[in-house]
Amino acid sequence: MRVMNILHDSVVDGEGLRTVIFFAGCPHFCKGCHNPASWNIRNGTEMTVEEVVNEAGSNPLTDITLSGGEPFFQAKEVAQVAKRLKEIGKHIWAYTGFTLEQLQQSDDPYQRELLGYCDVLVDGPFILAERDLSLTFRGSRNQRVIDLTHMEIMV
After folding, report:
1. Who contacts 132 (Cβ-Cβ below 8 Å, separation ≥6)?
2. What is the pTM of this model?
């Protein structure tokens, strides 16, 4: 799979201390995106599931955030990563330009599988006209922070 970066000790990409995996490739092309270099999957570095799990899971104090790019763009491989990280006790947030409903109804079984490993989903494309810097863990008002374990919107 293609990975842009793995960043340890983030406090802005979900609750608590987190390791963030930034995946390459994104089909949304949101105007005002904070990471447009991630749109092109060729900009990432090729990594195996094992390499990503070893690096992301190496800090016992952090949980995991899947970001991008679009983690659901490489759902087959990212689902394997998420499964392995859940097995070692990690709580997983995922940022996606898709909506929860789009992922639930996706024809791609790997997108649905990956969704099943996520505890919290921040969904919806970034919309520059709805940008709001006062929002917690999201960039525009249309985006939702959804606790998937209780199926409720958090903020």
Report:
1. 139, 140, 141
2. 0.95
